[in-house]
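Example 3.2
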Amino acid sequence: MRRSALMIVGALFAAAAFTSAVPAQKLKAEDVVAKHLDAIGTAEARAAVKSRMAVGDATVTFISQKNVGAQGRIVMASAGDKNFVGLSLNASDYPGERFSFDGTKAKVANTVNGQKSFFANFINSNDLLLRESLLGGALSSSWALNNITDRKAKLSFGGTKKIDGKEYYALNYSPKGGGDIDITLYFDKDTFRHTRTEYKRTSSASIGRTIDESARQSETRMKVVEDFSDFKEFNGLTLPQTYKLLYTITGANGTTEVEWAYHLTEFAFNQPMDEKTFDADAK
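Structure, written as tokens:
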């Protein structure tokens, strides 16, 4: 009798384990997106916000070069499908960045002695991050996942991935027309909050003038990681207050690694915004 009871208990545990595993196995990309949007706020709360602005403190750390870091402020603004990111720093050799998308054209401003920084050049070469409103994630009202149908981007469910000991749902994002950069979005399994985006690109080694010179060339591997944490409710929307961006590039000249850390302290909603707000070149 006792053996039968143990068998029944064992069967119940097995059934429970199977039942809990089924949702993850059957989960589709559109399911993750729908639950993620609900995690930001209700449909009514999201629709009520026509424009958004976030302001906070910024710190830049040059990890590989061990240069002196820089501090300053960040401003993020968005309205409709328009967005802007402005970074002002207290360093003469790196005074900041300005990126924008006005609904038609993406712009990356020259801010370093009349030229673009290495990171600005990356964004300029991959301006789909601005056009698709991927940069900054759900902090922007123009966030790519808000209207994935009109963007005609392709999303595929990438299963679960473990990062720092915790499991996340992964979605692979491919913009209309494709591209040479791999984009993966990560969502907390419990809350469906968007907590991470990874961008990866590998460039083949260049061909030298001679065989020996070609042999010394190596491929270039680029990776950019955005991390979002410290979520809090503002105006009916649950948004991250901490936003970190890690840029790593490895090639023939070694590895360059830089981190931008932002702590957003002020949020404003439905404020009137001048069209020049979404022009990185505007003074």
